[in-house]
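User: Fold this, then the next.

Assistant: Folding the first:
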Amino acid sequence: MKRANAITGVVLAIVAILSLVVIIPWQIETGPQGMMSPRLVPQIMMGCILLLSVLLFVTNLGPDETGAPQPFSQAELRALALIGGIFALSIVLYYLIGPLAFGVTLVAGSLIGLGERRPLVIVAMPLVLMLMLWALFYKVLGTAIL
């Protein structure tokens, strides 16, 4: 049960952070001068949800009873950090180089990070996926991706 609570806390924290950083600023306009911003109440609520979800995560990190294993093993936390790093690198490459570098890095990096060692699969999967996306958007739909 502690593992489920910890995962729920992480998911709720991610949703709250995305809401605070992306959704609320993009969807709710700032109010006129001299008036309280319409963003205030949603931001306060998301801040409360963020604090409570972090509290839920932190309180459920320990084992259920004495002698029980931790809810997350070191290998799971390392894999989470590795996949998160691959996503971060892919996003940086998207902004620096373009969508092709993003897609190839995301797919090939995830394959390597998850343990794939066959070179043909590591090369072929991003290549086939990118070619299929190109054919879909440019040839079938007749529109550009960007």
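Now the next one, as you asked:
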Amino acid sequence: MNNHQAASILSLHNRLLTLKLLPRTGWLQRGQVNPESVAEHSFGVATMALFVGDQVPDIDRGRLLSIALLHDMAEALFGDLPVGARRYFGIEAKHEAERLAMQELLSEVPNAAEYLELWDDYAARASREARLVKQLDRLEMLAQAAAYERAGNRNMDEFWQDFDEGWSEEFPIIQELADELRMQIIRRNV
């Protein structure tokens, strides 16, 4: 590694440190005091990918973990857009902005093209690994909503409205985890 590469890696890391301070906007909008940061969410997704990935046949765990770590990285440049804002901008504009942000973030680091390809895979849901990360992203958000409810926040009803929809049949383990999460919520609320 040369000095330029070392400097570019440290520069990227410094930019990504903002994710530790960037709250997840959806939680703020629902009145959550001290909501999780984007970095905390990404850690949760990556942790789930580590343990769930071992249980899914024909998954490249290295690719899975890389995608999990990259999936929200663009938010270091423009923040965590709430779902409502995405509705106004449109999914294409959101993806275009995220890709431009990823290109800027990764432009100087070694293996930039490889990392951008992994992010493109996630955006397109082209591989099993990318589709699994998307499912884990949603499951982690619901697990966080359940954690906030356990801590006393009762503004989480909208998260449970579509609970049974959108789970991929491609990964039965995700449905099993979602069912277990739902049972834990039901047992707690009875």
